[in-house]
Amino acid sequence: MTAKHSQVLCEPSRIDDPSESRASLKNAQEALKDINELNKEHKNFDLETKDIAQQRMSLKTAEEFIKKLDEREGVRNSRILSPTSTQNIKNQVSESRKSEMKIIQESKEQKKQLNQEHQIKSKRISKQRRQMQNIKQQQYQDERRHQKIEQEKRQAKSTSGSHSQTAQQEPNNKQTGNLPTAHDQKVHQKDIKFKAQMDNSGKYRALNQLNKENKWKM
Fold this sequence. Notes:
This protein is an all-alpha fold and 218 residues long. The protein contains four helices and no strands. 91% of the residues lie in helices and 0% in strands.
């Protein structure tokens, strides 16, 4: 895992434009290449696990062989043999036993070492799998955010286009002499009513003045 890939895992998603989103996705794709290499290493790890099982079988076989030697030694000692033959048999059994004990000890040490390597690799594989999951999650979030940004841009363009179209239609309505709106009609009715009231009040004042002049003449 490179520093660039770990940066994808540690830093929060920061996408201001589609170019940064594509860069983030490219980093995730490179990390996935490393994960493919990791899968190959997992296969090798499985082969090593099989080797551990074979070592255990070898250890079991060696223990069974020593058991058979002990049984053979007891049978031969029960027979009447010359001291030389008995000693030769004991020497052979002793050498065989030493050789097998050496094999067993080497197998135990190798088994211990393989188990330690197995634990180390298991921890590392678990960590890398978590990192792989984080990369996939980060990639998913980046794609969702990129889609959201593109959607917001499309909505902004659509809204600005509708405003400009409305602004173009307003002067056209004035030029073509379209009918006034309900609000305009309501305001117009109020103006007419107010003017009528003013005219009526003026007529009343004129009649009153005329009546006063007629009374003075009389």
